[in-house]
Amino acid sequence: MRHRRLVFITLAVLVALIGIGGTVGYGVVKGGWFDSGSVTGTREGFRANSGPGAAPMKRPNALRRRNWWGEYGRTRTRTRAAARSRVTPPFRRLWTVDAGSLVEFPPVIARDRIVVSTNAGLGIAIDPKSGRELWRITLKGRSASSPALFKGLAIFTTLRGEVVVVTAATGKVRWRFNAGSPIESSALVTDGSVYFGTLDGRVMRLSLKTRRPVWVARATGDVKAGLAIFRDTVVVGDYGGNVSAYSRRDGSIRWRTSSPGTALHGAGRFYGGAGIAYGRAYIANINGRVVALDARTGEIVWVRVLDDFVYSSPAIADERVYLGSYDQHLYSLDAVTGEVIWRVNAGERISGSPSVIGPYVYASTIARTPSEGKTFAVDRETGEIAWSFPDGRYSPAVVSEGLMVITGVRTLYGFRSR
Hints:
Blueprint: H1 2-31, H2 62-65, E1 81-82, E2 91-98, E3 108-110, E4 113-117, E5 122-126, E6 133-138, E7 148-150, E8 153-157, E9 162-167, E10 173-178, E11 188-190, E12 193-197, E13 202-207, E14 213-218, E15 228-230, E16 233-237, E17 242-247, E18 253-258, E19 275-277, E20 280-284, E21 289-294, E22 300-305, E23 315-317, E24 320-324, E25 329-334, E26 340-345, E27 355-357, E28 360-364, E29 375-379, E30 385-389, E31 397-400, E32 403-407, E33 411-417
Parallel strand pairs: 1-27
Antiparallel strand pairs: 2-33, 3-4, 4-5, 5-6, 7-8, 8-9, 9-10, 11-12, 12-13, 13-14, 15-16, 16-17, 17-18, 19-20, 20-21, 21-22, 23-24, 24-25, 25-26, 27-28, 28-29, 29-30, 31-32, 32-33
């Protein structure tokens, strides 16, 4: 009897182990418990003429025709690219403006003014020709985002949780809205509304007319990035490790996709925002994954694993995706497959988002001593460094009508081609 009980116990243990092994096997193969590494994409579903930089727009709107950079990422699809710009090095410096404190996100430019916000809680407008200060306001809270310029308005977001709407010509505050949670998300302005995320995990559409929310949706974690438009949705990643597409009309979820993650460590977190082009959403994770998603369905079409954190939002042009990493490299990835075309050693970590301006991509290094950071330009075809400037920290450059503005640690520089 004792021997028979031992046999039964042994068989029961074996059955349990087989069950556990099967569950783990399913998790590995189907459940994504362990990282599958880089996944190369194909041209299936890729629409070459459906994104900025793919082909000239047949009927460009005024913003694109004048080459303005009126919001973070330049366009509402957040591609961070003025690929046809003729502003190239060598440069002639026109002016220098000390903003007085850290400028974490780049300024915006439209018509006759540059507008920037600072970590000291200031909103400042600058004349693009002379660098002369036109006005400054106190935002009543630090700002870690870019403002937006829209129909005579300058729109700021702050870490005190406010959306501040200002007359762009004079700096007069029209009204303020308190979201009840800090906002790092750069404002996306369309549909007569401001779209943004909050650090308590909400996504909101705020009407510029009624000054009230049209809808409020829930994310799966803190939302730090700006939202990007794809057709009738807005797309954003969050600190829960998910990318979600919300209906612009009512905020309902269209799709939600979890990021691939490292072995047993989960999906990671999305700090940088998505860029939309070619029917795909390109976004990078703090866990080192750069992911391309089908923007209609959220299906993952490729994954590229880099060697360290990626805080960058992508710059996208001409079927290339550009990002920086804490592994000290700037990358050019194939937008179709995710394969590495080239990588450039910057000698320091890259935290901010690059910008495409003409034939070059610009990036900045986040040196351990701020004064040692730099901004540099890389030839998009060859991957060779073509220009360098001894100031920089986060997002480096914007351009408008022949003027390029470089963002240093706390200083803005106006340049034109020689």
